Amino acid sequence: MADTDQIKELLGSGLSHEVVATAVGCSPSYISQLMAEEDFSSEVALLRTRVLTAQNTRDRGIDSLEDRVLSKLGEVIDYVHKPMDLLRFMQVLNAARRRGVPAQESVVVNQQIVNLQIPTKILQHFATNRTGEVIEVGDKSVVTMPAQQLLGTLAAQSTEHKDQQTYARISNYLPQLSSAAAKGKN
């Protein structure tokens, strides 16, 4: 399986899940499972913050140079017969790629929004979060369960049903659960 530290570094540099999955040879769903883990996703967020901070520092430096060239051009424009050198320098600085906001995030996408009118009787069965995403239908949650929690639930069910074969397979994935379950049996 792919190295999680390498995946974390690539995601932290701002690459998409699909690009990272292709680069390391795993599926995008595996990347999503890793991102569902709180520790992993917070480390990726910290790396992304560091990268963005460095990029913004560089952008401010380019902006500062551009301001200085504009100022200099303004001071000497009346006295210089060949301002092309300053203009070329200004052109190079102005064309410098700003990195603080990646190009794919700065593109404005025009999307058509369709408002659906759902009858109130049906709407009462849906629970949404702050962003309007449906998180519950009736009494069933539709939020993706983190892999760690799913395997923990399966391990607990296998010990309740005395299905030792299933429990043995699950405990191979989560050794910490097998030790916790062994303590619970004693």
Overview of this protein structure:
The model is unreliable at 177-182 (pLDDT under 50). The chain has 2 domains: 4-106, no CATH class; 116-186, no CATH class. Strand 1 and strand 2 (134-137) form a beta hairpin. It has a 3-stranded antiparallel β-sheet with strand order 1-2-3, with no helix packed on it. It contains 10 helices and 3 strands, in the order αααααααβββααα. It is elongated, with a radius of gyration of 27 Å. It starts with a helix and ends with a helix. 65% of the residues lie in helices and 5% in strands. The longest helix has 39 residues, at 38-76.
Give keywords.
single chain, 186 residues, mainly alpha, 2 domains, three-stranded antiparallel β-sheet, 3 strands, 5% strand, elongated
In short:
The protein is mainly alpha-helical.
SSE layout and pairings?
Elements: H1 4-12, H2 17-24, H3 28-36, H4 38-76, H5 84-95, H6 103-106, H7 120-123, E1 126-128, E2 134-137, E3 140-141, H8 147-160, H9 164-173, H10 175-185
Antiparallel strand pairs: 1-2, 2-3
Number of strands: 3
Query: What is the succession of H and E elements?
Result: HHHHHHHEEEHHH
Count of separate DSSP helical elements: 10
Overall spatial form: elongated
Oligomeric organization of the protein chains: single chain
Determine Rg (CA atoms, Å): 27 Å
- Taking the alpha carbons of the first and last residues, their distance comes to 35 Å
Strand coverage percent: under 5%
Helix/strand-derived category reads: mainly alpha
Strand order of the largest sheet: 1-2-3
Unreliable stretches, pLDDT < 50, 5 or more residues? 177-182
Count of structural domains: 2
| Helix content bin | 55-70%
**Overall pLDDT confidence:** 75
